[in-house]
């Protein structure tokens, strides 16, 4: 079990930074008018995030009667793990995801998502996550995310040009606010920004 002693309010708010490709805070699952959106906070040096979310009742999101579908729970943890990887300096895509459902997930109740990097190499990052209600584990997730090579990232920026500026702004702000944090990936992007 991941031990998070900091309160949600005392963690760095990464909502104010826009991650590229719409990753992280504010992304919704059922359209622009959805009330279902994640709000992330981060502890950079410990490589973990916490998110708060409430799943509003909607019959299309229902799995067991009056509870959220298991696929929705998996989506929330996948989004949190992917945000953790991106926000902590090793942007990547999921190559393996695993979820275990322990209890049914209620609608209309504030839920907490915890996500932490447990292992990281130049090529991949392993992340563990949990979805909780009232400090009880509802769903656990693990993921392995393959780091996007910088030359491939430049191809993604050609598809989504505004993402390049968003990512550059995020990295600059992140590095300025966290001078003790080291990311070769982020440093390389800053150094080679014009050629991406």
Care to describe what's here?
By secondary structure, the chain is an alpha+beta fold. It has a single domain, classed as Hotdog Thioesterase (Thiol Ester Dehydrase, Chain A), CATH 3.10.129.10. It is 27% helix and 29% strand. Strands 1-2-3-5-6-7-4 form a seven-stranded antiparallel sheet, with helices on one face. β5 and β6 form a beta hairpin. α2 packs across α3. The longest helix has 18 residues. The N terminus is likely disordered.
Distance, first to last CA: 39 Å
β-strand percent reads 25-35%
Helix fraction by DSSP (H/I, runs of at least 4):
25-40%
pLDDT averaged residue by residue: 79
CATH superfamily: Hotdog Thioesterase
User: Which CATH class is shown?
Assistant: Alpha Beta
Q: Which class best fits the helix and strand makeup?
A: alpha+beta
Order of SSEs: EEEHEEEEHHH
The name of the CATH architecture is Roll
Estimated radius of gyration: 17 Å
The overall number of domains is 1
Give the strand order, joined by hyphens, for the main sheet.
1-2-3-5-6-7-4
Number of helices: 4
Which terms would index this structure?
seven-stranded antiparallel sheet, 4 helices, about 200 residues, about 30% strand, Thiol Ester Dehydrase, Chain A, alpha+beta
Write the layout of secondary structure elements.
Elements lengths: L11 E2 L25 E5 L4 E7 L15 H18 L4 E10 L8 E11 L3 E10 L2 E12 L2 H10 L1 H17 L6 H8 L5
Antiparallel strand pairs: 1-2, 2-3, 3-5, 4-7, 5-6, 6-7
Helix pairs in contact: 2-3
